[in-house]
Amino acid sequence: MRGSLWQLGQSITRRLSQADKKAVARRYFASEADLKKTVLFNFHVAHGGKMVPFAGWSMPIQYKDSIMDSTVNCRENGGLFDVSHMCGLSLKGKDSVSFLEKLVIADVAGLAPGTGTLTVFTNEKGGAIDDSVITKVKDDHIYLVVNAGCRDKDLAHIEEHMKAFKAKGGDVSWHIHDERSLLALQGPLAAPVLQHLTKDDLSKIYFGEFRILDINGATCFLTRTGYTGEDGFEISVPSENALDLAKAILEKSEGKVRLTGLGARDSLRLEAGLCLYGNDMEQHISPVEAGLTWAIGKRRRAEGGFLGAEVILKQLAEGPSIRRVGFTSTGPPPRSHSEIQDEKGNNIGEITSGGFSPCLKKNIAMGYVKSGLHKAGTKAKILVRGKAYDGVVTKMPFIPTKYYKPS
After folding, report:
1. What share of the chain is helix, strand, coil (3-state, %, to 5)?
2. Where in the chain is the domain with CATH 2.40.30.110?
3. What CATH superfamily is the domain 321-396?
4. How far apart are CA 42 and CA 406, in angstroms?
5. Model confidence at 28, in pLDDT bands (50, 70, 90)?
6. What pLDDT is recorded for position 19?
7. Average pLDDT across the chain, whole number
8. Where are the alpha helices (DSSP H) in 281-325?
9. How much is the average pLDDT of 179-196?
10. Quick count: other Cβ atoms within 10 Å of Cβ 349?
11. What angle do CA 70, 7, 149 make, to 5 degrees?
């Protein structure tokens, strides 16, 4: 699904308010019967969730509160997201690490058991097939989550390379966790609320770490991570236990943690300067251009050995021709595909994500500009509906991250 989640929600709401509501509803929801539903679908509807099609799923864009209020509440208290549309899978076997390192830029071998990292699946040209959080559970077990909209191509890509790897005697197999649901609990109340539901000491689990533990009576995969810039967790829970867990989290928070939809999720990740695949990263954009050089392991920079390594290592040595940067701007909020110009009116790039920040109360955006024009403080013009507005390159994240790390 291309375009920001916020724009999707606004587009549907705006069009439904116009003349022929039945025709618009048919256009957006004609295939509703074909959409996949998470096990929390009825729970979302009962809580006022506005359901929209997203990557083949019926997902809540927002609830009874506004996207603005929901975004702010996540940062002040907490948000609970149903992200069961995303695809979790495990790779197992003594060669699972060496297999995965052929496909991603991370130093998987260098991860300690129980730790993970953000990585990128690359193609032969060094472009990004998808981004993913991967965790080394044990030396022979890797757990990873890929984006819903990329599921089919990711699984086909992994399977193709796995067949070739196994044909050469490699020991690796996979399991796709369609029997599990995925919840994301984010915000300052995430840890205190979740602590009520487990005997394990969450203060000993830091950002990027993974545990298999009992939460609310179910065996869960717990990763201290998220997509908001806040402290929080992603919880892979057996689907038959997902509804009880969601209810327990909301109950233990005494109403402060709210169900939060895809609209606020998009605002939160943009404020945190995080990429949305299909907007800020695509198959023609390399991890270096996307500002994810830090995700390329030191050993991988020396050895290569992943798809597109030659292109990426050359960019590391010589510098990329374009770079992802942040912007603040005046006027209407920039949107995906808004043209970026220098002060003389020359095209220097394009916005990939943008909107009004509910927490900062100003326009923020990210996009790609020519190298040399990427320094913070560089002035630019951003075209919105054909009119140029002042913009300035701004360091990301726009809002400081609050990841839980050792002090």
Report:
1. 30, 30, 40
2. 321-396
3. Aminomethyltransferase beta-barrel domains (2.40.30.110)
4. 39
5. very low
6. 39
7. 94
8. 298-303, 309-318
9. 98
10. 23
11. 95
pLDDT at 157 > cutoff 50: yes
Residue type, position 391, single letter: G
CB atoms under 10 Å from CB of 17, counted, come to 9
Binding site membership for substrate: which residues?
234
- For 40-86+179-270, which CATH class? alpha beta
Give the orientation angle of helix 67-76 with respect to helix 262-271, to 10 degrees.
Answer: 60
Residue 23: what pLDDT?
A: 40
The pLDDT of residue 32? 74
The rounded percent of the chain whose pLDDT value lies above 90 is 91
Q: Can you tell me the distance from the alpha carbon of 331 to that of 150, in angstroms, rounded to the nearest whole number?
A: 34
Q: Which of 21-30, 115-124, 350-359 is predicted with the least confidence, judged by mean pLDDT?
A: 21-30
How many CB atoms neighbour CB 237 within 10 A? Answer: 24
What is the C-alpha separation between 354 and 336, in angstroms, rounded? 6
Q: DSSP secondary-structure letter at 104?
A: B
Helix (H) / strand (E) element for 339: namely strand 339-341
Per-residue burial over 115-124, b = 16 or more CB atoms within 10 Å of its CB, e = otherwise: bbbbbbbbbe
Q: Give pLDDT tens digits for 274-303.
A: 999 999 999 999 999 999 999 999 999 999
Annotated binding site: 234
Calpha distance 117→405 (Å, rounded) = 14
Residue 383 corresponds to which amino acid? L
Distance from C-alpha of 340 to C-alpha of 383, rounded to nearest angstrom = 6
